[in-house]
Specification:
single chain, globular, disordered N terminus
């Protein structure tokens, strides 16, 4: 009976989304699990080991050129999570902010790799419009 219940629950939740492998995958999977009736717990004693010097995906102004490859995925995944959790209107508002206000901030305040950062922010932000990943099950 437990095996049948576990199998049905796994089918209703699915696996983490492969394409979201670097940032936001944990948030998306947790939200999907709780929407499907599983309990979520906060464990303040848990620790995460990041094998990088810095773990910041939101501050494009301080990221170096060699860190921008991760930002591409973080931007798209963040906008995807907003769309799933808050709806298309909220996601479009954040998308518009990224394409206007954030791009202006990059132009005005970014010290190096200014145009590469603009390109990454713009293309990654727009990529969410075609991002509809498949949720796989075992």
């Amino acid at each position: 009976r437990t095996a049948i219940r576990s199998h049905l629950n796994q089918k209703s939740v699915g696996l983490p989304i492969t394409e979201m492998f670097i940032w936001g995958d944990d948030v998306e999977f947790f939200n999907r699990m709780t929407r499907n009736g599983f309990n979520g717990f906060y464990c303040p004693a848990s620790r995460v080991l990041h094998k990088t010097k810095l773990n910041n995906n939101s501050d494009l102004l301080s990221q170096t050129k060699d860190q921008l490859w991760k930002a591409k995925f973080g931007i798209r995944n963040d906008l995807y999570n907003i769309r799933i959790q808050n709806g298309i209107i909220k996601m479009l508002r954040v998308l518009l902010w990224r394409l206007t206000v954030l791009n202006l901030r990059i132009l005005l305040f970014k010290k190096s790799a200014k145009f590469t950062t603009l390109k990454v922010n713009t293309l990654s932000s727009l990529s969410v419009l075609a991002f509809y990943p498949k949720i796989e099950c075992l």
